[in-house]
Fold:
Amino acid sequence: MIEYLPMITEMLESLYDVTSCAVTQYSRVFAFRVDLRLPTWIDAEADGFTNITISKFFESLKAKIRHNRARASEMAAYAHDTKVRYFWAREVGDWGRVHYHCTILLNANAYNWLGNFRSAGENMATRVFAAWASALGVPVDQAKELVHFPENPAFLLRREDPGSIAEFFHRASYMCKAATKHSGYGHHGYSSSRG
Structure:
């Protein structure tokens, strides 16, 4: 996204690697973007806050997806599994508040939409809300206010359609902009799943 130049090359390469791994493993990949904010009561000074909360979020989300896939395999003779791949970037916004931009990539044969954000039922959006609540140690209703899905957050990447992959990468590259990144304080400014 040239309007957000300069970009951080290492971040772009990491995002590209995660995307390539997902499309190599699955012919169709469901990817979505989500922003996770910290509540104002957490002391999130840029030079003193570690990334433990985002690590807890991904562990919780992966556990929820594993549980869902196990239930699905009990109910159907063949239920598709998925590896949870992700990329996140830490930013410091106005007033020095830390937030995370995240991209999550899944097997589209297992998941292919976020679901109704207001639903009380289980869907991918409600799993995200619950995982952020778990990471923060707050009720889900409180965590919902801190989760933001940007406009048009979901993508279907198809291995045979390079245009679908390019469109996703173009939109996701926003996370790799140099502006609002804060590094050099003993924490990582971004990370991604391995393999």
Strands lie at 28-37, 85-92, 98-107, 147-148, 154-158, 190-192.
